[in-house]
Amino acid sequence: xxxxxSLLAAALLLACLLGLAVGEVLLGPADLWRGLLTGEGPGGFxxxxxxxxxxxxxxxxxxxxxxxxxxxxxxxxxxxxxxxxMGFTAGAGLGALAVAGFGAGAGLSVTLxxxxxxxxxAVAVALLALTREGxxxxxxxxxxxxxxxxxxxxxxxAMTRLPGPEAMExxxxxxxxxxxxxxxxxxxxxxxxxxxxxxxxxxxxxxALLEMGDDLAAGLGLRVQRARAGLAALGxxxxxxAVAVAxxxxxxxxxxxxxxxxxxRRAGTAGPGAVxxxxxxTGATIAVLAxxxxxxxxxxxxxxxxxxxxxxxxxxxxxxxxxxxxRGGL
Amino acid sequence: xxxxxxxxLTLAYDRRIVVEGLTLALPAGRVTAxxxxxxCGKSTLLKALARLIRPQAGRVTLDGEDIHxxxxxxxxxxxxxxPQAPIAPEGITVGDLVARGRAPWRGLLAGWxxxxxxxxxxxxxxxxxxxxxxxxxxxxxxGQRQRVWIALAxxxxxxxxxxxEPTTWLDLPHQIEVLALLRRLNxxxxxxxxxxLHDLSLAARFADHLVLMAAGRVLAEGTPEEVLTxxxxxxxxxxxxxxxxxxxxxTPLVVPA
Lengths: 330, 257
Ligand SMILES: Nc1ncnc2c1ncn2[C@@H]1O[C@H](COP(=O)(O)OP(=O)(O)O)[C@@H](O)[C@H]1O
Ligand SMILES: [Mg+2]
Known about the structure:
The complex is a heterodimer.
Chain A: H1 3-21, H2 29-38, H3 41-75, H4 88-104, H5 108-129, H6 137-160, H7 164-174, H8 183-202, H9 204-210, H10 214-219, H11 224-246, H12 252-266, H13 272-296, H14 305-327
Helix pairs in contact in A: 1-3, 1-12, 1-13, 2-3, 3-8, 3-11, 3-12, 3-13, 4-5, 4-6, 4-11, 5-6, 5-11, 8-11, 12-13, 13-14
Chain B: E1 4-13, E2 16-26, E3 31-35, H1 42-49, E4 57-62, E5 65-66, H2 72-76, E6 79-82, H3 94-99, H4 114-126, H5 142-155, E7 160-164, H6 172-189, E8 192-196, H7 200-206, E9 209-214, E10 217-222, H8 224-227, H9 230-237, E11 241-245, E12 252-256
Parallel strand pairs in B: 3-8, 3-9, 6-7, 7-8
Antiparallel strand pairs in B: 1-2, 1-4, 4-5, 9-10, 11-12
Bound molecules: adenosine-5'-diphosphate and magnesium ion.
Residues 42-43, 84, 164 of chain B line the site of magnesium ion.
């Protein structure tokens, strides 16, 4: 593992320890250590029931979002091309809500609903953005932003159909929330995201070729359309898996890739595999820290995770936008 | 039939036909330059020769076999393409970029083999880049960067090498450097080289065989002396020019009138 990835992994570990220790009850290092090792004492209950599943779900969902964002950013060669900017997570949110709101409950059906919604949004955006010259990344981003607004509006409309308490709960989930996560949620995202991450790892050599342009990649023996479609499907599925357990948390997918690239480049070179792994680590770190901040920012009030990533992510989006404009990408 | 041939090739984007009924034999073991005005279909032809686009009619054959009947990777081991605008990934070093030329030779889970390393080292040495291997590509001059892309194509170890305008953005000394490199690779390693060029007189100096295109057809092909005639230049480019013997090499020199 490169030095850059080790640093990002250390940052994630630190974030997780902080996320476990800090909350309404502050755990000292001794309690935290004892709780982690033995599951007993004041730390044990907090870790097992209150914060452990929450931190685990947040880290895994953040990792899935970060990897998803980095896939799209590489495949489309545009730092703005993240599933949250392009409306895919909004589609996944609507899909999950449709399943959950119609009484099917949690678990696999929600994941499938999110996947169907995310894939539907991705296909719709791709078809709407398609031109005679094929898929132009910037057009895809702009159409995606529009689709995201439409899907969010549709979701808002669907919520008015829900009874009051359920609407409140849905609203909370839709802004991206890790409240009341159980080990069931953590297990669900682990079982869905890990196989997807392994499949993505198998496509890293293809990504390395795609980065250099379609013609060169094809000349080097890559089946470009097939590789791109496979990577996009994995990106949508990873985002949907995260949305199913944490709601459509905004901006993590957008931020993780550029931040990871920056960190990795400072520590040496960064191939596409390192960027994907780094984006997963960074996404997990952002999710855990943002959730921690959301819990601790206002005493006695638990803000949804998505509110915090929104506060962090909006400046990041503006920074990426200005950088792209200066570079002539917009 | 050895070498790369186009037989009665018709190429189109959607419905729009760009190249029609083109037949061409690219001599094996030679340097061939493809010339012609902008938009006449040179890049399109090159992509079809490299199996990147499927012809609407006709076929491309490599040593007698239809190129679309061969597996993608098998073609990529025999025929390399350097497109007009390849993208250097952010922050990548010369050595890492050249290593990507090994893609058609590597298995999904196979590591970096001794053969891969030998091919990379040879490609870097042939292009004079051995000492720059650890440098980021972004730090290099335009001429050096073009040599890096050629090194990537060399690491691919193909007998045929197709290049689309490898000299277009370079100043004159760097154009000559790249063309001399291509000819040296041809003479010393026996690779067949096909390159799209814009400078007619430089093409005449460095290529053995010229193909002059206009509006998706081949107007003339043969030795530089056979192809670069005032009549052909008028037909292809609408250019009125004198063709004299280059005082240095004796090859045709085009002087616009
Ligand atoms: N991807 C494409 N889609 C549609 N038309 C294209 C595409 N690429 C090239 N063309 C058109 O095909 C014609 C030939 O282009 P090209 O082969 O690039 O010419 P050249 O390389 O000789 O300048 C031009 O009119 C160009 O506009
Ligand atoms: Mg061209």
